[in-house]
Design goal:
Blueprint: E1 5-10, H1 12-29, E2 35-41, H2 45-52, E3 60-68, E4 79-83, E5 93-101, H3 105-115, E6 121-129, E7 142-146, E8 152-153, E9 169-172, H4 174-177
Helix pairs in contact: 1-2
The structure holds xanthosine-5'-monophosphate and magnesium ion.
Magnesium ion binds near residues 43 and 158.
Family: Belongs to the purine/pyrimidine phosphoribosyltransferase family.
Protein name: Hypoxanthine phosphoribosyltransferase
Pathway: Purine metabolism; GMP biosynthesis via salvage pathway; GMP from guanine: step 1/1; Purine metabolism; IMP biosynthesis via salvage pathway; IMP from hypoxanthine: step 1/1
Amino acid sequence: MKNDIKEILLTEEQIKTKVAELGAQISKDYKGKDLIVICILKGATPFMADLIREIKIPMAIDFMAVSSYGVSTQSSGVVRILKDLDTGIENKDVLIIEDIVDSGLTLKYLLENLSSRKANSVKVCTFLEKTERREINVIPDYKGYDIPNEFVVGYGLDFAEKYRNLPYIGVLKPEIYS
Ligand code: XMP
Ligand code: MG
């Protein structure tokens, strides 16, 4: 697995530090609110598991799985729900947890979909953002790191379902996916 990685972009140490910072900020901002954190499967699972242990206020979790069609390294913009929430979010303060915001198409869909369910608020926390690739004007409320426009894997992010278990964020060698 390690041989397929060109370069380590973010180390375990950098990830840990940033997640603690985000958790502290979220704990402060959501104090006294009815927080429900929604993990977008599958990529956001390691991030959400680490993040919720840095959130020091009462909260709930739920999961949603969405997919754009195909297994390419590009988002198609056509999003479908593979697994919906188990619980209603009416009057709750929703925080969507994403692994990465790339074109922004997935996030736009999620925001529109969840906002229509009468939540008190809907915000977004993404671990990574590829700002230069944004096609749609959606801005995450909380963000770990801005990364350059390269295909990354690890810490939940996959290529064809592999590499999610790497404990760091790495750039995949182009020969692996081309
Ligand atoms: P959009 O373009 O809709 O993309 O913002 C969001 C989804 O696309 C996937 N994605 C990646 N997955 N390495 C990955 O493993 C990447 O560099 C990458 N860029 C986008 C990801 O599933 C994300 O939720
Ligand atoms: Mg993926």
